[in-house]
Amino acid sequence: MALTPRQVLVLLAVLALIAAVAYMTVGAKGSWSFVLPFRGTKVWAMTVVGCAIAISTVLFQTISANRILTPSIMGFDALYALIQTTLVFVLGGLAYATVDPQLRFVVEVAAMVLFSGLLFRSLFSGAAKSLYLLVLVGIVFGVFFRSLSGLMQRLINPNDFAILQDALFARFSAIDPTLLVVSTITVALVCLWVVRMLPVLDVLALGREHAVNLGVDHKRAVSEILVMVAILVSVSTALVGPVTFFGLLVSNLAYLIIRSHRNALILPAAILLSVICLIGGQVVLERVFGFDTALSIIIEFVGGLVFIAILLKGKGR
């Protein structure tokens, strides 16, 4: 017998709890007073990042009416890589490694939010074609940022490049507690904002014409959502680094298992799936592969396969 969407959410919540408990306890050695806070911080970070990526992806797909688009298409990941590359290119690898992580976090978030704000303000006018233009310009900027990053990466010395490469992969260890608290508060406030807009999100999913006919201020609503997406992506990327295909993976899995267009069901499903994938994947990575690879590499590989499968099956709207 098929499960109802609410039963699926309960099952996902149980699986997420099991993954968290497994990560906190499996292979634990030494004093629990050290193990639990140490691993608990990682679980906390993965939960915050997973929540931010899942919400931003579902929101972006809702307003773009396309399930193969993610906020990374706007060039956020490329801008993050450009910021890191520029810092290493200007300061050098050793000086870069000694930069205060809190200062670097503020610079990265400010740069990405400023970039998105200028992009939205200059291109978005409320018409449907403007949203498509926004996506197109985001892709162009992404290519431009990657080209600049590639040029500088070819000019720096190999030792600095090795330090840079480590910064360009998402990392869930050694996260600054202060930054984690700030990120948690920011994501929580955006979540409250999203909850307030849930009824509007379902109407926006019907398309611009239907939303306008039903009395929704389409320009204002989409502008608010784009701001939320920019904040979530900026905070998650600055906190742990870019994870390009992860949002695509969890959002499409949520659509598949929930089989509903209601954002009140899709959003929590995507959040729980992201938590399961991140924490469960970290358990497998640490206990099976023994830290032989980065979790972000596995996520990118699986997410890329999902992206190709969606394209081949023509499931993207």
UniProtKB/TrEMBL annotation:
Primary location: membrane
Membrane topology qualifier: Multi-pass membrane protein
Membrane-spanning parts: 43-66, 78-99, 131-149, 179-205, 225-258, 265-285, 291-312
Annotated Gene Ontology cellular component terms: plasma membrane
Keywords per UniProt: Cell membrane, Membrane, Transmembrane, Transmembrane helix, Transport
SUPFAM superfamilies per the UniProt record, alphabetical: ABC transporter involved in vitamin B12 uptake, BtuC
Keyword Transmembrane carried by entry: yes
Subcellular location: Cell membrane
InterPro entries, per the entry: ABC_BtuC-like, ABC_transptr_permease_BtuC
One of the GO biological process terms: siderophore-iron import into cell
Keyword Manganese appears in the UniProt entry: no
Domain of life (superkingdom): Bacteria
An example molecular function term from Gene Ontology annotations: transmembrane transporter activity
Family the entry assigns: Belongs to the binding-protein-dependent transport system permease family. FecCD subfamily.
Name of the protein: Enterobactin ABC transporter permease
Organism from which the protein derives: Devosia geojensis
